[in-house]
Amino acid sequence: VQLAETGGGLVEPGGSLRLTCTASGFSISGGYMNWVRQAPGKALEWVATIGSDGGMTSYDDSVESRFTISRDNAKNTIYLQMDNLKPTDTALYHCATSSWWLPQSRGQGTQVTVSS
Question: What is the pLDDT, as a whole number, of residue 35?
């Protein structure tokens, strides 16, 4: 499993970012995909899940209505649109296959920092 996340950066509170995760070496079609995050000194936290065809999505309460997960199976890519970002969203964001709690199921991550 190889997953590469891009799109992180420094943004002011209330701003937006779009994260992209491209898979290689395997096809994401037919499987659930996830975004998870880890803030400094804190445990890994699940953020969002998308079903194999994109028809099902689920979010942690802390990001519901602000974040949108999507996928393009033809491009072997998933996305996370993040709007109205808060300082508490600061973390290293990883995309992951269904077993997101396993390190080998995640990419290296992209850093998101929300600060004024």
Answer: 98
